């Protein structure tokens, strides 16, 4: 057997990751012989037959509510999934360049507020929720926001502005909700340049056809 | 650990097919692997793989796309063009590094 | 009795009026006659053009040129046809000829909207395409703004150099304010369109002013070399193919020198007179000096430059008439208030060699004015300048500001 010709199909028993390319080509030829780490596409007769799509709806402007969709959207892009993100209501703050670097995290209404670092003070304390009343103390929101930003930074999670740049460069499709955009009297020049347009909810439903929808 | 054999080379991989031993990797192997996903490695491709090797040698983890941009100076859009679909995963596989775990 | 020496000044604007008044106080009444020629009798406070579209009463910017000239200065109301250097005569459009021993050209610059395809000759001129570099234009723009409640506004510079290079920026900030106060800012999209690669000509100021544009949600379209105005589609078209749609275009037409300068063979391609930038003396004729915007000196075309240059010029002129070497060297000092909206202004202070920097003015740390940073004091300074202009500058009274730029209070950017 000569090794001068490179092969373009994996040999028998070859283990390789699923890059999603093969299942997505229009008509996968009978590749029955190729080995099996590749998950076969579901064969249910869905009306939509394009690439996998995910649609995120961001409706909150809190710092801790901004990240989940951005992180998931970014992960989806990394997996070759087509990503659409619709920003509505306070979620518009995430794509408004006047506010997006100033999103806040607050204790109030967040009973999951316990801090890993407190475990060093007294073991067990890391699982104890902060009393809700603490959220009303002056300066508490600023403190909590700084804490969270620091923790995110330690995990090498980019700031919101950088994150939007990243999503834009990775090819995410981002939109602002027309109704709330008008309601909040936003200025188009303030939108992050990655935002493709100000569209109605109906438009977004059209765009999201066949997508898995995630509401945040 | 399972092993893969390609064009006369045998190397150890994890259950998904990512190389487990750094020293098994060579640019020739990367070229052969790339052929399996319909990629012909250009100098641009190799530059990204070399950066990933060097960077991971110091940090111990597979660089994220964002790190490729901020530290390596590669444009993310270009990476998507070079490795269509799943750039991070493809680059990790081709450069013989573990599957990327970071979210960004 | 020997003949009087004749000084002829062409133009009774800021520079011409200041020069006449300064020299009348310096030159011997019995030995020198001073004559100023201008085509009309209305002296306009040009910084006011910026405010007319918003709040300033138009009539407030106009005064009679003759009342602003000191006794002993003759005024001739006539348009100038050309300068005959060989005969030392100036020919007027009505055919009269005025002879001179020394000539000061202070005829300024004028906007020429005929140089852009679709500007002055377009159907939208003075309808949706406006300028504020003339009295008429500024008044017309006031009406256009009053009826504007939604749409796209472009604030546009056709090409450099222009008179008062910060005025279009100021207009952008003021118009932004205007719509915020009306509560319809979100319905108005404002873009600042410039042929430069940033908000201003010099790097530090460009960064500061660019940041301010962003802060006010004003878009920046840089490196925009306009080819024509598309009057049918309401678009501004650039040579590189970019097209910007507009509902209101506020443009600054190309600024050129006066026609008689070109006709006399004294001007460069834009009609500005080449001079030695430190003495302001014509490079081709030692009997001619050029003050104000009419020369080609590489600094801003602005009243402050005319003011500082004139103070340097007076001694030089006297020396020149006596055949002595010229004692003073002008450094290109310019000092501009930049209205930044919200009742504040910035201050720029620079010359040929030093770009506008941050700091305080005129006194280090104490200020009270802040360089390159918006403040209320600067804004009040700008408003107060109107009275200073009429009562001190034009009559030739010295201001407590050196005509040479000082580095005191300025901070150089860190390397």
Write structural notes for this entry.
- The complex is a heterotrimer of chains A (216), B (104) and C (415).
- Chain A has helices at 21-24, 63-78, 140-154, 160-170, 178-183, 201-207; strands at residues 53-58, 82-87, 173-177, 195-199, 212-215.
- With 216 residues, chain A is α/β, with parallel strands linked by helices.
- In chain A, helix 2 packs parallel to helix 4 (160-170).
- In chain A, strands 4-3-2-1-5 form a five-stranded parallel beta sheet.
- In chain A, helix 2 (63-78) links the parallel strand 1 and strand 2.
- Chain A contains six helices and five strands.
- Chain A folds into two domains: 50-101 and 159-215, DsrEFH-like (Hypothetical Protein Ychn, Chain: A), CATH 3.40.1260; 103-156, no CATH class.
- Chain B has a domain at 26-94.
- Chain B has helices at residues 27-36, 43-59, 65-70, 76-82, 87-94, and strands at residues 3-6, 9-12.
- The mean pLDDT of chain B is 88.
- Helices cover 46% and strands 8% of the residues of chain B.
- In chain B, strand 1 (3-6) and strand 2 form a beta hairpin.
- In chain C, the strands form eight sheets. In chain C, strands 5-2-1-9-20 form a five-stranded parallel beta sheet, with helices on one face. A five-stranded parallel beta sheet of chain C has the order 11-18-12-13-14.
- Chain C is globular.
- Chains in contact: A-B, A-C.
- The interface between A and B is large, with 31 and 40 residues.
- Chain A: Residues 1-38 are annotated as: Disordered.
Number of helices of chain B: 5
Quote the average pLDDT of chain B: 88
> Do you know the CATH architecture of the largest domain in chain C?
3-Layer(bba) Sandwich
Number of domains of chain C: 3
Main beta sheet of chain B, described?
2 strands, antiparallel
Largest sheet of chain C: 5 strands, parallel
Strand order of the largest sheet of chain B: 1-2
- Looking at the structure, what is the overall shape of chain B? globular
Mean pLDDT of chain C: 93
What oligomeric arrangement do these chains adopt? Answer: heterotrimer
Main features:
heterotrimer, A: 216 residues, alpha/beta, Hypothetical Protein Ychn, Chain: A, 2 domains, five-stranded parallel β-sheet, 27% helix, globular, B: 104 residues, mainly alpha, two-stranded antiparallel sheet, 5 helices, 2 strands
